[in-house]
């Protein structure tokens, strides 16, 4: 008796995202947005300051870090190389700052993308997916 060969379907593991923002409402909103992308994407941690972000980046080893440039007066952009030293995550800066200098500085320091908070949720999701390529 011959057996049919059935291909084994494997699902890629979800993209693990660390959110870094000092505003609870932003953390909640982006978490809800990413939850809509389940099972392909999930939030694995949230940090409200640089110290927490560095600890979680080391402990969690996320695929992507969504980082605010202004963490209650703390320079989030300056965290980019420090975060990259803790993990291999791509960093998407998600911020209210709209000055071209902030964008250029973030990209120069190693951010994969820079998304204004005035953008649509689909723009942020696209930036996360683009950073994974």
Automatic annotation (TrEMBL):
<dbReference type="InterPro" id="IPR001789">
    <property type="entry name" value="Sig_transdc_resp-reg_receiver"/>
</dbReference>
<protein>
    <submittedName>
        <fullName>Response regulator</fullName>
    </submittedName>
</protein>
<dbReference type="InterPro" id="IPR058245">
    <property type="entry name" value="NreC/VraR/RcsB-like_REC"/>
</dbReference>
<dbReference type="InterPro" id="IPR039420">
    <property type="entry name" value="WalR-like"/>
</dbReference>
<feature type="modified residue" description="4-aspartylphosphate">
    <location>
        <position position="68"/>
    </location>
</feature>
<keyword id="KW-0597">Phosphoprotein</keyword>
<dbReference type="Pfam" id="PF00072">
    <property type="entry name" value="Response_reg"/>
</dbReference>
<feature type="domain" description="Response regulatory">
    <location>
        <begin position="16"/>
        <end position="132"/>
    </location>
</feature>
<dbReference type="InterPro" id="IPR011006">
    <property type="entry name" value="CheY-like_superfamily"/>
</dbReference>
<keyword id="KW-0238">DNA-binding</keyword>
């Amino acid at each position: 008796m011959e057996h049919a060969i059935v291909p084994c379907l494997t699902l890629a593991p979800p993209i693990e995202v660390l959110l870094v923002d000092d505003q609870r409402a932003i953390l909640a909103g982006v978490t809800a947005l990413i939850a809509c992308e389940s099972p392909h994407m999930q939030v694995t941690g949230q940090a409200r300051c640089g110290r927490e972000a560095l600890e979680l980046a080391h402990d969690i080893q996320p695929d992507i870090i969504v980082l605010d440039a202004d963490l209650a007066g703390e320079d989030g952009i300056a965290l980019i190389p420090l975060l990259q030293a803790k993990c291999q995550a791509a960093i998407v800066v998600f911020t209210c700052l709209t000055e071209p200098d902030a964008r250029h500085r973030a990209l120069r320091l190693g951010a994969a993308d820079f998304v204004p908070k005035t953008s649509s949720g689909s723009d942020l999701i696209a930036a996360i997916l683009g950073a994974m390529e």
